[in-house]
């Protein structure tokens, strides 16, 4: 019986193992030629993008996120209604609308889902608050169960991104120049700290990347054109490193956007809008510090968002203003990037595998 089972497994494996294609979804702004969320096929051997189609028509899906099982997609809609929507992934790759709820603040710019898939958080840039939602088994969103307002009488908050990590929730607030920390207790989140580390000046923390063990957080600063490296300790957090993202001889205006660790966490990547580059950093896994080793052109304009493919061998960059997606190959030895090609797509601002 074992021999027969093995024989049956061989053709199944051959079919699945020889197909290098994986699905990529693209969030966009729809004030121009774009109509919503697009779907493409990405070849994980060659880096080729193909078979572009409109997955669903929806207004300004500027950030999109999967459920853990990849059966549902959630989109922050920076439209006139300021909403977050849920969609079901169909067998043909198209998205079926499930429902929409209010983001409870203007300018929703980021959405993420926890590892279990029962909660989502939306960051409202203009509103300066975050909203937390429970997710039903059918993928639909309930109205927000909690809304945290970061605004004060003296400063306007601009919540820009948020991520769950186990029972923690971290929020980068560009307006308050801080990363907030919340903790889950009795099915509700409570504020632990309104600044895990102190900042000086106006760096503008925008996005961040956490190491798999949760011990290190890398914060990319939109105005400071820098990355702040933070280590978690028994008594809280400490800043261990601060590194510039731009070339030393670059004198123009530039604004950082997105940040991601490599699959093996030996390298870190950040995007510069203005210089229009990806900054590549070598990371020391033992102490978490980083060192810049490359700035490479994105072959486009305004790299608002980028991602690594599921194999960890490629970087794909969404260039908003030049209406294209650029593909780069990662050198597995030194982490540096080599440009392969680019394809046209209207106002891409979020890439999701």
TrEMBL record:
- Keyword Hydrolase: yes or no? yes
> Which Gene Ontology molecular function entries are recorded, alphabetically?
hydrolase activity
A Pfam family per the record: Lactonase
Q: What is the E.C. number?
A: 3.1.1.-
Q: Which UniProt keywords apply?
A: Carbohydrate metabolism, Glucose metabolism, Hydrolase
Supply the enzyme class, top level: hydrolase
Thylakoid as UniProt keyword:
no
Top-level division of the source organism's lineage: Bacteria
According to its UniProt record, which protein family does this protein belong to?
Belongs to the cycloisomerase 2 family.
- List the protein's name: Lactonase family protein
Species: Flavivirga jejuensis
